[in-house]
Amino acid sequence: MFAAIGIARAAGAKVVYDCNLRPRLWPAARAAAVIRATIPMADYFLLSMEDALALCGLQDPDAILGWCHGAGARVVALKLGADGVIASDSKRRERLAGIRIDCVDATGAGDCFAGALMAQLAAGGEFWEGLRYANAAAALTTTGYGAVSPLPRPEAVKKLLAGGITA
Q1: In this structure, are strands 75-79 and 85-88 parallel, antiparallel, or unpaired?
Q2: In sequence order, what are the residues at sequence separation of 6 or more whose Cβ sits closer than 8 angstroms to the Cβ of residue 87?
Q3: pLDDT digits (tens, 9 = 90+) for 19-75
Q4: N or C: which end of the chain has fewer CB within 10 A?
Q5: 3-class secondary structure, 94
Q6: Which CATH class is domain 1-98?
């Protein structure tokens, strides 16, 4: 992970770090130590409530954002599942409510959120607008089964954001 971040930095890339902690894949103490050590190396740090509980033991979203900034995070997006997302860049803090839709399966919604946000940033978009887009894309992903087939097309996300559809 350290090498990948170094290569990205050397190439002038922005680093988006989606914590996505999976304790079954490596010892919890080692995972937490590596994640904490790499937080300050990222431009954007994404995590879920489950990740936060495992990393810092906190459950209050505002306290979690404070912990992340204290750990060196520049910009944080805390994914709240069906309740949306709360984000902070130390100067601005914004909470986006979850988009109420007919949820079938949440598998892959967090990954969709991260990918949609990164796509918006890579296209030159601004973080706060990218956050809105990612929140909508993740919601749409829950309308189908699995992690791949329900991924929404950009047109569907834009239509949802414009209020043109309710899923």
Answers
A1: antiparallel
A2: 65, 75, 76, 77, 78, 93, 94, 95, 96, 127, 128, 131
A3: 988 888 888 889 989 999 999 999 999 999 999 999 999 999 999 999 999 999 999
A4: N
A5: strand
A6: alpha beta
pTM score: 0.91
CA-based nearest residue to 2, from 50, 44, 37: 37
* One-letter amino acid of 97: A
Which of the residues 43, 89, 105, 111 is marked catalytic?
111
Residue 111 annotated among the catalytic residues of the structure: yes
What number of residues does the chain have?
Answer: 167
28-37 pLDDT per residue, tens: 889 989 999 9
Nearest Cα residue to 106 out of 68, 150, 73 = 150
Quote the DSSP letter at residue 165: -
CB atoms closer than 10 angstroms to residue 41:
18
